[in-house]
Amino acid sequence: MARNPRLFQSLAAIAGVAAAGYVSICGWMYFKQRDLMYFPQNTRLGADMTDYTVERGDAVLRGWRLNAGREKALIYFGGNAERIENMREILAQWFPDRTIYLLSYRGFGASDGAPAEPELFADALAIFDQVAREHPRQPVSVIGRSLGSGVASFVAGKRPVERLALVTPFDSLGDTAQAHYRWLPTRWLVRDRYDSIANLRGYFGPILVVRASNDDVIPPPNTTRLVHSLQTRPQGVEVVQLRGADHHNIGTYPEYGQALREFID
């Protein structure tokens, strides 16, 4: 069969355009990824609406302290678009015997700065350390939801967390993003990785995982991989699955609060 040079040239040109387009998309995803990962826009509020701060030198983290004066403490890390102030009333009711701390991430709520994994991790350790100083020789437990599960897992691997509850958690953000964008090399593009499996290797306390059966944000296999990695620990992991719940409405299920209360207390 005779070759058609023009056909081959056309196909090569099309392949070149497609390759350039693919590389451009990868580049756009790499440089814009934090805009796709963090959504602080709808969480912003005035500093006068908060009552607790952690000074970080380059930023002030602002939030709330509930049930002040209790001996034991509880820290809550929220999701990547969560208005954590909406959890104040319910957490205060669930844990009346603990002082509860909710601090907005950088760029969220009334906190200064812009979110990124290194800064959020360092901030989270500073929050834990300040809370621990305010509750000397008393246990500090941590709850992390969605993105906050990655932050909480890092803290637990670095600090003496009494009990750790992870709500709608993932194995790592790189693997979770890959599940959503299968046609892109997302696993290698992600800079803020939140590798909970690796971070939890340094934690040996009790862990609760609360997962939603219909989670539409964290693919179930990503939560399952995290759970399987924790089952190899001598302490194991307690898992509560809320049937019918999705990523956003899990907090409306009575079993959600019941599981957290029974585990933390």
UniProtKB/TrEMBL annotation:
Protein name, per record: Hydrolase, alpha/beta fold family protein
GO molecular function annotation: hydrolase activity
Lineage top rank: taxon: Bacteria
Alphabetic keyword roster: Hydrolase
Organism: Lysobacter enzymogenes
The Serine aminopeptidase S33 domain, residue ranges: 74-172
